[in-house]
Amino acid sequence: MGFFRGNEAMQQETVLRMQGAFELSALVLYFSGYYGEIPAIMFLGGGMLVMDIAMTIWLRVLSPVYPVTLAVLLSLFFTPWYQGVFWACAIFTLIGTPNSVRKLLSPEKVLKDYPEEER
User: Fold this and answer.
1) Is 103 within 8 Å of 18 (Cβ atoms)?
2) Per the domain annotation, does 115 fall within a domain?
3) H helix and E strand count, the chain
4) Of 45, 61, 47, which Cα lies nearest the Cα of 96?
5) Average pLDDT, the chain
6) Is residue 84 a contact partner of residue 76, using CB atoms and an 8 Å limit?
7) pTM of the predicted model, to two decimals?
8) Contact 81, 37 (CB under 8 A)
9) N or C: which terminal CB in the chain sees fewer CB atoms within 10 Å?
10) 8-35 and 81-95 helices, crossing angle to 10°
11) For residue 59, how many C-alpha atoms fall within 13 Å in the half-sphere facing its CB?
């Protein structure tokens, strides 16, 4: 299996840790770039946020109605428009920050919350 060695639970914990790190680093990069006025870092973090929300919608964990509606509304008020999309994704990622920290620090507890057949 290459990178993943060991039992299935260890593999799932590794994926959860990577997912939590990805979500938190996306927020840090976006806000650092936005408030530090560093466009490259802002675009990197914003792109990561959009990818995370798109994956969450694709996996049917999140209904597309709310993030897409918020992204459209905020893109009407922010200049340039992509700032509204990034902010909408950041809002939904901020809501999930406690879970992201749990994934990063104690993935075994996150796994216990889900029955075996849902993994």
Assistant:
1) no
2) no
3) 6, 0
4) 61
5) 89
6) yes
7) 0.83
8) no
9) N
10) 140
11) 9
In Å, what is the CA distance from 113 to each residue of 35, 40, 97, 106, 118? Answer: 36, 38, 17, 12, 10
How many domains does the chain fold into? 1
Instruction: Look up the domain containing 71 and give its range.
Output: 8-107
Residue 119, domain member (yes or no): no
Residue 117 lies in a domain: no
pLDDT tens column, 46-73:
999 999 999 989 988 888 899 999 999 9
With tokens 């914990």, the residue in question is 13
In a domain, 58, yes or no: yes
Whether 40 has a pLDDT exceeding 80, the answer reads: yes
For the chain, the farthest-separated pair of C-alpha atoms sits apart, in whole angstroms, at 49
